[in-house]
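Case 246 in the screening queue. Each case pairs one protein sequence with one candidate compound; here the compound is adenosine-5'-triphosphate. For every case the pipeline is the same: read the inputs, emit a complex structure as tokens, and attach any notable structural observations.

Predict complex for case 246.
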Amino acid sequence: MEIRLTGVSVTFPDREHPALDDVSLTVEEAEHVVLLGPSGSGKTTLLRCVLGAVKPTSGTLTVGGKNPAKAAELRAIRRCTGVVRQGNDLVHGLRAQTNAVLGTSPSWGLRDWAAVLRGRVPARYAERVRTLAETQGIQPFLKSQVESLSGGQRQRVALVRAVLPEPRLLLADEPTSGLDPVTAQAAVHTLREASGVTVVISTHDLSIARQFPRVVALRDGRVCFDGPELSERDARDIYEGVEVGT
Ligand SMILES: Nc1ncnc2c1ncn2[C@@H]1O[C@H](COP(=O)(O)OP(=O)(O)OP(=O)(O)O)[C@@H](O)[C@H]1O
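Case 246 output:
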């Protein structure tokens, strides 16, 4: 799904400076983009705008041609979108594998509900859950209650939940935070494997950013870099506040 922002600004109440400041950006259908930038630069705000959780103060934003600020259009966007949130939002009291299949619930029939209510994975998702869980290294924990998992293990369950329904758009806010280098790499692999899917992730990890074909960097709510290759100098400029490319 294409994401198109035109002159988008967001100023939160009681804030002097905008969180997003006149951002114009197009992410093409099936493009994989990483958002980079210092803490507080506006990455999460941008992702939340795409999800309709924050409304632009000015400017226009469309996702697959739909306006996420309108409830009916937002529902259509959310139906095709997988999300991995910072800190994630798994349902406590349920097994990891039950959480992993929750994103597919709109298409459940009676048999699927019956399986889920018994804590099992519906048969038609079993193979893919197993494959994804193996890639993410969470196979041994699938039957555990999510609250007994570590932060990194929960993060990986959230990633499986996001990709399992085969969404057209995948948004991930720091999906590798809290993961060790090997599991972080597995998470990136799963996201990069989503061919034909529009993928936008935010990260602070330059080695992860460099694995994506396009890097968009924000600083003080503005786009300060947009390109395919991030040099050491560009990275330093983004984080040290120097004008990129000067
Ligand atoms: N709900 C809110 N109310 C007021 N200010 C907010 C709100 N959400 C974000 N902000 C402010 O907007 C700015 C951008 O925040 P945002 O979370 O988008 O940054 P970020 O780049 O994702 O940071 P990080 O890398 O630390 O997650 C910050 O100054 C933040 O304090």
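Case 246 observations:
- Residues 24 and 185 are 30 Å apart (CA to CA).
- The chain has nine helices and nine strands.
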